[in-house]
Amino acid sequence: MGLLKRWFSFYVFGNIHVGLAAYCLTQITLSEFSIVNRSLPAFIFFSTILAYNFIRVFQIDRINGMIAAWIRSNKRPLVLLNAGCLGLVIHFSLDFDFYELLILLPFLLTSVFYVVPLSRNIRGLRNIPGLKLFLISFTWAGVTLYFPLFVSGLEDMDGLWMVFTQRLLFIMAITIPFDIRDAQFDFPDLKTVPQLIGINNSKWVATVAMIIFVLLELTRNESTTTFFAVALVIAAVSVVSILFARVRQKRFYSSFWVESIPVLWYLLLIIFR
C-alpha cells in the first residue's frame, strides 16, 4: 500500500497527470475534427510534463510547501523522468516541420517567462496582477487546440474563434479551483482572481464561463448530438467541482480530481462514439 501511494504521488506531483489531461484535450480536438495524427498527442503529453516540472522547480521557493518538500525528496526520479520526456519530445518533434514548430514559440515563451524574471521588478509573467489565469488558459487552448488544427491545415476554418473561445473558457473555469486552493500560498501582490474578487465570486465567474461554453457548443454547426451531450455532462461535472472547491482542499482534490475532467471528457467521447 505504501509503494502504491508513493507511485501515485509521483504520478500526480511529477505532473504526469497534467500531461495526461493535455493529451486528452488534444485527442478531443483530433476526434472532433476527424484528424488522424499519432505523434501530436504524444508530443504534447511529454512537452506538458517537461514544462510543468520546469515551472515547479524554478519557483520551488514560492509554491505549496508540501509539494516543494516532495520535489526536494524526489530529485533523482524527477531528473530521470524529465530526461526521458526531453528525449521523447525531441523524437516526436521530428515528425513536424520547422514552420509548424515555430507556431508553438509564443506558447513556449509564455511558459518560460511565466516564472523566469522579465526584469528586477517583474518576477515572471505570473506575477503581473490578474494575468495568471489568462496566461494558463491561452497557452492550453493554443497548444491543445490551435496547434493541432494548424498542423492539420485547418487554422483558417470558419468558426475557429468560437471553438478557441470554448476551450479558453473551459480551461479558465477548471483552473479556478487551483487558484482557490493556492489562495493560502500565493503572495498578495499576485492578485489572482480569488484574491481580486473573493472565493464565492470566483466560483460564479467560473460557472458563467461554463454556461457560455455550453451555449457556444449549442450554436456550433459542426457539433453533433454526441459532442453536445458529452459537453453538457462535462460542464455539469466542472461546475460541481468548482462549487465544492475550498481553500483548504483534500490533498488531491484539484491536482487529481479536477485535473481528471479532460480525461473524463475524452473517455465519454470514446464510449459514446
Question: Which features does this protein show?
Answer:
globular, mainly alpha, 273 residues
Q: What would a concise description of this structure say?
A:
The protein is an all-alpha fold. Helices cover 72% and strands 0% of the residues. α2 (16-32) crosses α8, α7 (105-113) packs antiparallel against α8 and α11 runs antiparallel to α12 (225-243).
Write up this protein:
The longest helix has 23 residues, at 160-182. The protein is built from 14 helices and no strands. It starts with a helix and ends with a helix. It is mainly alpha-helical and 273 residues long. Helix 8 (132-151) runs antiparallel to helix 9 and helix 11 packs antiparallel against helix 12. Helices cover 72% and strands 0% of the residues. It has helices at 2-13, 16-32, 39-58, 65-73, 75-93, 98-102, 105-113, 132-151, 160-182, 193-197, 199-219, 225-243, 253-257, 261-272.
Which band does the percent of strand residues land in? under 5%
The averaged pLDDT comes out at 87
Counted beta strands: 0
Helix and strand composition category: mainly alpha
* Biggest sheet record: none
How widely separated are the two ends? 36 Å
Q: What is the string of helix and strand elements?
A: HHHHHHHHHHHHHH
What low-confidence regions span 5 or more consecutive residues with pLDDT below 50? none
Helical amount = over 70%
Rg measurement, Å: 18 Å
Shape: globular
Number of helices: 14
